[in-house]
């Protein structure tokens, strides 16, 4: 009699564990922040990539044009893949591309730019990642389009490809 009760308790416990684990497999635990477009450009101070001098967002985004902020790193494989599209985009006179080098070794980042070319009109460093968080990024690469009113109008998560390049070109016309 005790063996049957013990066996029943063990079976009920195993069924309970199975149901919990099965439900856990079916629910996603991947966090994806909301893509908050129509957000005002954050006000910030950052260090210039080459001179290490401090520059404010007011100085950086003073012209009445479209800007693209691209968060990148030399250790990021998708950043390497998207770089040719940034180089193509940098030929447009309708936009300035601002690079934000994310948690990177400065020497490696400079080698990356020297090897692949510099599409950025200005490049900033984000050693601790705080500035990227202010923009709403949670990884690299991420790209933000900022309109003439200094508002983020579009965010691209992941590397730019031919399709997203065409979308960007349509926006900045």
Describe the protein in words.
The chain has 173 residues and is an alpha+beta fold. 40% of the residues lie in helices and 24% in strands. The chain contains six helices and eight strands. It has helices spanning 2-26, 57-60, 77-89, 106-116, 130-135, 162-171, and strands at residues 39-40, 45-48, 54-56, 66-72, 95-102, 122-126, 142-146, 151-157. An eight-stranded mixed sheet has the order 1-8-7-4-5-6-2-3. The chain is elongated, with a radius of gyration of 23 Å. 28% of the residues are buried. The model has no long low-confidence stretch (mean pLDDT 89).
Concise description?
This protein is 40% helix and 24% strand. The protein has 6 helices and 8 strands, in the order H-E-E-E-H-E-H-E-H-E-H-E-E-H. The chain has an 8-stranded mixed beta sheet with strand order 1-8-7-4-5-6-2-3.
CATH superfamily: Glutaredoxin
Number of helices: 6
How do the SSEs run, as a string of H and E? HEEEHEHEHEHEEH
Which blocks of ≥5 consecutive residues have pLDDT under 50? none
Keywords:
Glutaredoxin; 6 helices; elongated; 173 residues; 8-stranded mixed β-sheet; alpha+beta; 40% helix
């Amino acid at each position: 009699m005790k063996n049957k009760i013990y066996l029943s308790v063990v079976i009920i416990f195993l069924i309970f564990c199975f149901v919990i684990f099965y439900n856990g497999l079916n629910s996603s635990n991947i966090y994806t922040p909301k893509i908050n477009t129509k957000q005002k450009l954050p006000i910030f101070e950052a260090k210039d990539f080459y001179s290490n001098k401090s520059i404010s967002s007011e100085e950086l985004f003073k012209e009445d044009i479209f800007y693209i902020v691209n968060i990148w790193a030399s250790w990021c494989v998708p950043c390497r893949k998207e770089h040719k599209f940034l180089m193509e985009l940098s030929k447009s006179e309708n936009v300035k591309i601002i690079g934000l080098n994310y948690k990177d070794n400065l020497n490696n980042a400079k080698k990356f730019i020297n090897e692949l070319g510099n599409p950025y009109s200005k490049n900033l460093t984000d050693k601790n990642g705080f500035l990227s968080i202010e923009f709403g990024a949670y990884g690299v690469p991420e790209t933000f389009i900022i309109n003439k009113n200094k508002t983020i109008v579009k965010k691209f998560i992941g590397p730019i490809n031919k399709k997203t390049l065409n979308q960007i070109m349509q926006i900045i016309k």
